[in-house]
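Posting for a labmate who doesn't have an account.
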Amino acid sequence: MEYLSLGKIVDSFGVDGTVKIYSTTSFGEKRYKKGSKVLIYNPQDDDRKEYEVIKYRHSGFFDFVKFVGLTTPEEVKTMKGFEIQVIKDNKDLDKDTYFYSDLRGCKVVDENNNELGFIKEIEEFPAQITFRVGRKNGKDFFVPFIKEFVKNVSIDEKIVTIHVIEGLL
């Protein structure tokens, strides 16, 4: 079974056991809808426990989530560094959308099928989502994740074809 990370617990917030999460999801409103269930993953003992969402709000880089069963700041503080996860389900995706985890590691080629590198990371800048492409012998370069640059994504083959313009590399 594969899991998607929604973020990491950084602290408690307030006195009612609300969890402050450094968010790594673009779909917080959907993932933390009242009644939704998520997993809290403890990496020290490789254990996951399911929690139901009561309340959610987002501010800056953080999600603030109140879960059933977590009622004190002390309980939450024992979970600092734990990851919030959901089970990966491709049915959640719209057409031509991808999980970031599926894009990481994909080979990047130009329109002539010349290998340029691999996707190291997907970074979200205010203007757009951008691929950080690592090269074997050279500096990383960035490719905006927009139609003008990204011509084809094949998750099955783990290949992303891009249009290269002067100055991109």
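Reply:
Got it, the structure tokens are right above this. The mean pLDDT is 92.
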